[in-house]
Amino acid sequence: MKNKKTGLVFFPAFDWAISPTHPEREERLLYTRDQIFEEGVLDLPEIEEYAPRLATIHDVARVHFCVPRVQSQVTEAHLIAAGSATLLADAIIQGELKNGFALVRPPGHHAMRVVHGNRGFCNINNEAILVEYLRRHHGIKRIAIVDSDVHHGDGTQDIFYHDPDVLFISFHQDGRTIYPGTGFPNELGGPGAYARTINVPLPPGLGDETFHYVVDNLILPILDDFKPEFIINSAGQDNHFTDPLGSMRFTARGYAEFTRKLNPHLAVLEGGYAIETALPYVNLAILLALAGHDYSYIEEPERPGRMQENPERAAMVKRIVDQLRDIWENRDRVDLDKIFGTGTFYQRRKHIYYDTDYIEEEQLEKVRRCPNCPGYITIDSRADHGYGHPSHVFCVSIPFAACGACQAEAYDVYQQARKSSQYQYIYLQDKSTDTFLAFDRDKGQEWVSEGPGVGE
Amino acid sequence: MYIGIDVGGTCTDAVLLDRGAVRATAKVSTREDLLLTLLEALDEVMKGINGELIERVVFSTTVITNLIAEKKYDPVGLILMPGPGLNPNLYRFPTDTYIIQGAIDYRGREIIPLRLAEVDRVAEELAARGYRKVAVVGKFSCRNHRHEKEVAARLRWNYPNWHIEEGHQVAGQLNFPRRVVSTYLTCATREKYQFFVRSIREAISQRGIKGGVFILKADGGTLPLESSLEVPVETIFSGPAASTLGVQALMPPGESAVVVDIGGTTTDLALILSGQPLLASRGVRVDDMLTHVRALAVKSVPVGGDSVVERVGKDIVIYSERLGAPYCLGGPVPTTTDALRVLGLTRLGDAERAREAMQILGGPLGLSPAEVASQVTGEVIETIVQEIENMFTRWEQEPAYRVWEVLQKKKVRPSTVVGVGGGAAGFISQIAARLGGYPVIPPYAPVANAIGAAVARPTLQVTLRADTEQGFYIIQEEGYQGKITDRSFNEEKALELAKEWLCKRASRYGLEDCMEGLEVTRREVFNMVRDWVTIGRLIDITVQTRRGILYHVGGGGYRYEK
Ligand SMILES: [Zn+2]
Ligand SMILES: [Zn+2]
């Protein structure tokens, strides 16, 4: 580890925006570029800059059901952002790098398994694409994602909710006070992945002290137990005290300290919209922390002030931390049937709102409760775009570690759904063989995206 | 008629060009005294030519390179204003460094004020330590030079005899540590360089030359001798640029090639892409310090024709140093050239002595001279090919910050491998074969460097940055900050303004005739949006005079077999 470098892909997408005045616009990483270039950090022997790379459509299909097709939901910018993460991961696993920072746009942590449009500035989930890529191409089994964005990483949670091998921890401003309105302590994962999802809602106004209380007393101990082979940080920076969307009071140094403690293999930029007052400093701080350099000289021009944290709110966080620690420690002793019932399927209904594209989606998600594997998932999804007919699709997802029985059953379910007249598109995602199918009922046509197959 | 002179470590090459034809060439040994060397080369190519016929003389000079390498410059103290960011102790500059309060941000706003009392205290300490030269550099001074100017003014007031250099005047690009180094080196070498320029001017006029005298820069551009006083450090490493431009001049226009310049102890590699030499994406490393000095993307590999070969135990090792001529030419020790001689890849020197050299190496190991020779040449070729591959990879892997840059078509590696320099003949076919390309040795290859110097264009550039929200613009190269009063200032107006400044700069340098075919090399416009409303624009524009060469030599019409 000692002599290895920190890899950086800096892809500010200076020619890409959701719309000219949208927070996700060309200007977002401009001042970050200025700061990083002016500091000369790219000349440091411990840091190596890499040219970005595009992810493939297949990499996206391994995670998402894009309606109607992957190509209709992603632009090249999305593929570059996701591909940059997989590029750095390749170099880390091959031993060229000790860790990496995908300082890229557009972000992805609000993108869920089914994608009808853009929500929370995200179309595809960069971290989720990376996780499935790591499993498929590098045989990595246990992965942890720690989401430090002010917004709940609801997309990432959705994708790995039934996945026992992916630990997802998100701390964020309390969902009652901010988009997307989720991420409460009782969202703990499905029956096959109980307590593999951990959410710490934080009352607005809390700063570095509480931030690090959560890190030291909850996140690090859980990671110690879980022993992931690869740690990803969804490095959102909107917890910063100057962020226009969030109301937290974290500092650049607070973020750097967190990065040092977490010691992730890869940090992937998510949100953060104080493009002048926070991003240049937080990004520099994270990069220096990853490279093992001193970040104590980084200071924002504005200071958060010596405001005392509200003791009641801080105490509330401590209670949540205690409660979640307890749940984590007893995760294997808990009676799952009591929580999830005894049926062969566990199902949940979801209402999903796409704030950028004004789409309302209704989902019925079912997971097969299987004693031998995480179980396959089906999703019945109906999206109302506010005009025309709602699109109605059916998705079947076979997990990477599926048992033979679940795989066979899932293919049957897919074939059955193809016969039904209510769905426009029917999808099958077989992660166990890296094969993805999409059936267009109107055209009576099936598309196949095939990977290298099992055993290769 | 044009004269080009390239001063190398061991040899100095010169040519006299008449339109596209080579009229005379010269090769003299580089002596301790640079001026004498230049004059000797000049006199040799000018034999029988009246000085008044010479329209243009271009030198490459090693004066700054040598000053820096030998550290023969006066001590320079540093006063830095890094503000918040990297731990300033990480920056290791080779001199006394004083860090004072004061900081500017990326948009040129003051975030921490200066304390003049602190400036005075630091100056006293510098004075007490005997410094008379001081470089003052602030982080983001290229976005607002106010602090640098205030500190410099204060120092000049208190110490009128000091030589003070300000960072924003030396390097307008982003990268503070490199700005420090560039400013430091400029401060350190300017006085001695002045002396050199003065003696050149004298010598030239003694020879009756009335034409323009230019100095070649590392980026392949030239500057009038007088103007080069402003940027002495930019004259370093111009030798490799000379060779690359020479190949460009000797090739048909618009072609791509790998340039392999094999000299006595080093081989310089460069790329010509669609007729233009590739510039390095970052400034050059000087004496192990990173600078802002723009240069062609040249990679130096420490092997050449005179590289010493020795037997170490059971291994045969090639060293980067030179201990005189090759053995076959009467030198003291076996070299790579002796290996080529044994294999019949060169006709230099005495075949018997070359075989003897290989015998010295291989005898105790039971290897025949031919076996040793192919082992040696194989290793040289392997080293060079590996470095060419690395150079290709670096070029292909240059970071891209825009979608279109990532998507643009895959870069195509050139298939022509052009050999120049004394050692090229023996190696180039095998190098080209290894790369799957075609070998070419152009006519006049041994003096391609001098040809390149002779035909190098003068280059000037102006970089404008406008911040319409704050209502000011900066001309980086001039260290000028002006107000924007025009409420409808936009990209087009910015471009016009940049061109005006370039014109002014050109006329100051007496280069008015270079204004044809200007190139816009950077054009970046960002809307600044706050609370969903556009409040201004950041405009960055770079315009420069045409880069490259004035004309092709020998019609550029050589042919090579496919
Ligand atoms: Zn966010
Ligand atoms: Zn199963």
TrEMBL record, chain A:
One of its GO terms (biological process) is epigenetic regulation of gene expression. It holds the Pfam family Hist_deacetyl. CDD domains: HDAC_classII (cd09992). Residues 71-277 form the Histone deacetylase domain. One of its GO terms (molecular function) is histone deacetylase activity. Belongs to the histone deacetylase family. PANTHER family: HISTONE DEACETYLASE HDAC1, HISTONE DEACETYLASE HDAC1-RELATED. This is Acetoin utilization deacetylase AcuC. It comes from Desulfofundulus australicus DSM 11792.
From TrEMBL, chain B:
One of its GO terms (cellular component) is cytosol. It comes from the Bacteria. GO terms for molecular function: 5-oxoprolinase (ATP-hydrolyzing) activity. Pfam families: Hydant_A_N (PF05378), Hydantoinase_A (PF01968). Residues 179-459 form the Hydantoinase A/oxoprolinase domain. Residues 3-156 form the Hydantoinase/oxoprolinase N-terminal domain. InterPro entries: ATPase_NBD, Hydant_A_N, Hydantoinase_A, Oxoprolinase-like. One of its GO terms (biological process) is glutathione metabolic process. This is N-methylhydantoinase A/oxoprolinase/acetone carboxylase, beta subunit. It comes from Desulfofundulus australicus DSM 11792.
